Amino acid sequence: MRPSNLFASLWASATALPASSPVDSAATDTVLVSLSGQLDSDLPTSWHWTSTGPLVGPKDDGRQIAGIKDPTVILINGTHHVFASTAQSSGYNLVYFTFNDRAGASNATFHYLDQAPLGTGYRAAPQVFWFEPHKLWYLVYQNGNAAYSTNPDIHNPRSWTAPKVFYPDGMPKIIEQNIGDGYWVDMWVICDSASCHLFSSDDNGQLYRSQTSLGQFPNGMSQPVIAMQDNRNDLFEAACVYSLPGGKYLLLVEAIGSDGHRWFRSWTAESISGPWQGLANTEQNPWARSNNVQFEGDNVWTKSISHGEIIRDRSVDEKMLIDPCNIRFMYQGMDPSAGGEYNALPWRLGFITHNNPGC
After folding, report:
1. What is the fold of 4-354?
2. What is the rounded distance in angstroms from the CA atom of residue 31 to the CA atom of residue 25?
3. Residues pairing with 312 in the sheet
4. CA-CA distance, 13 to 311, in Å (whole number)?
5. Cα pseudo-dihedral 168, 170, 174, 179, rounded to 10
6. In sequence order, what are the residues at sequence separation of 6 or more whose Cβ sits closer than 8 angstroms to the Cβ of residue 247?
7. How far apart are CA 335 and CA 358, in angstroms?
8. Pairing mode of beta strands 327-333, 348-354
9. How many CB atoms lie within 10 A of CB 225?
């Protein structure tokens, strides 16, 4: 058992931004840190994590929300900015909240984005990033299509614009042909110096990728191609792609394990378009699964390590650059004994922390 005071010290060191980090003091208050410190971009082939308990769940505020899930998170000047799905029997929408450290996470004020021009109705699985060419925050999410809203100030949750979509003609034909009885979900954008790429999944074993030029974004998305294919449980949903110092890329995809619980597989590539080479992608050697996560205080509050995101604290822009020596992942988990209607499952949010022995 890892002592709790050791876990607390690891957390404190992970959340501290370097004192020399340059800060944009404009309204966006964005931290855009150059990773010039010769970080090792090689990732381990075997992963081991320590998890917090559940930190954020629904509030008793009359909304009757059953679960908080699908987090996207960035860290700016010591403050975590989190967008997540609110789930209940009647459907999904989005919530925004901030906190400085895990002790304050459960008390964070919820700002429900159905009060913004982003609007009511089905919105889920957000991704947030600062798009440097436009000097705007983008929030990408699913609404039956691949949608986005923008905002010049991340601190103002009422300023998110009404949804626009990446595919004005609706679901692309290749997805219609392969989706079967799945769902088109979990849109993710990452850009390099020339292009922006949009990933999505169909809950039926296909991972799709479209692209447009950096100058055209968010318009001009190409028809998707199949970026990866497997059986549906092994390549299910919640894909996210990150860039690493040195030019490599890391792909994570959520799977459904042989025990019915969720976990993450991982791959790397030299290009956003692939080809992708397996990193830690089996149940015996997973990227993140219950068999390689040690829970703080041995409180195994979840058997699923499900839909989440690596905390971006070095750079929050469209390139999705992460520090391979400081990987923390905000994820959704729930009581293993819970069951019932999918939309009403009691998902909660926690963190897992990994220390790269190669660093």
Report:
1. Tachylectin-2; Chain A (2.115.10)
2. 9
3. 74
4. 14
5. 150
6. 41, 270
7. 34
8. antiparallel
9. 13
| Beta strands 306-310; 136-142: pairing state | unpaired
Return left, alpha or beta for 333; rule: phi > 0 is left, psi -120 to 50 is alpha, else beta.
Answer: beta
How many angstroms separate the CA atoms of 212 and 192, rounded?
A: 11
N-to-C CA span, the chain: 23
Q: Which residues pair with 92 in a beta bridge?
A: 87
Q: Which residues contact 98 (CB under 8 A, 6 or more apart)?
A: 79, 80, 81, 82, 108, 109
- Residue 186's SS3 state is strand
Q: What are phi and psi of 215, to 5 degrees?
A: -70, -30
Considering Cα of 109, then 115, then 121, then 125, what sign does the dihedral take? negative
Q: What is the pTM of this model?
A: 0.89
Q: Evaluate whether 347 touches 334 at the Cβ level (below 8 Å).
A: yes
pLDDT of residue 314: 79
C-alpha 272/C-alpha 207 separation (Å) is 13
Domain ranges of the chain: 4-354
* pLDDT tens profile 212-234: 999 999 999 999 999 999 999 99
Place of tokens 């992708």: 276
- Predicted confidence band of residue 357 (pLDDT cuts 50, 70, 90): confident
C-alpha pair distances (Å), 341 with each of 272, 307, 345: 36, 18, 6
What would the pLDDT profile of 61-113 be if each residue is shown by its tens digit? 999 999 999 999 999 999 999 999 999 999 999 999 999 999 999 999 999 99
Residue type, 2: R
Report the relative pairing of strands 293-295 and 49-51 from DSSP bridges: parallel
Report yes or no: 305 and 298 within 8 Å, Cβ to Cβ: no
